Amino acid sequence: MTQEAKCPCGETTLSIDGEPIGQFFCHCDDCQAVAGAAYLPISLYPRDAVKITAGEPVQWTYKTNPRTRCKTCGTVMFSEPPGAPFIAVKGNLLPEGQFKPSSHVMCQYAVRPVVDDLPHFKGFPAAFGGSDEMMDW
Q1: Quick check: is 37 in a domain?
Q2: Which terminal CB of the chain, N or C, has fewer other CB atoms within 10 Å?
């Protein structure tokens, strides 16, 4: 499966091959700071699955993760956590219906509890190198 992710202005387009490794809402303080939001929808893909096919985005780092954004509208398109074998694409940029989160992660940094039917991990689930410790909201 190949899909496209586009920024709102349409200047920058990503081509993404294959299925995501995981999809979740991230509450880490880095995501909060760069997005000005309480959490972000994230879809993980292997590094070689994501390619820039249109536009000339720029890369910058605020705290820890290098992030790539559209140089025209400023939308953050994806981040590349150092040493990780994946790219974290913003889930809201995927085609409608393609973002299907399975959990919330890094909830130790949550601005407020989110009450829904998904699991809420304090850090990361064990599948992503975490402890599987849950928040008791």
Answers
A1: yes
A2: N
pLDDT tens digits for range 107-123:
999 999 999 999 999 99
Measured distance CA(9)–CA(15) in Å, rounded: 16
* DSSP element (H, E) containing 67: strand 66-69
Determine, yes or no, domain membership for 136. no
Instruction: State yes or no: pLDDT of 46 exceeds 90.
Output: yes
Burial of 82 (0-12, 13-18, 19+ CB in 10 A): exposed
CA torsion through residues 113, 87, 98, 53, sign: positive
CATH number at residue 36: 3.90.1590.10
Tell me which DSSP letter residue 107 carries.
G
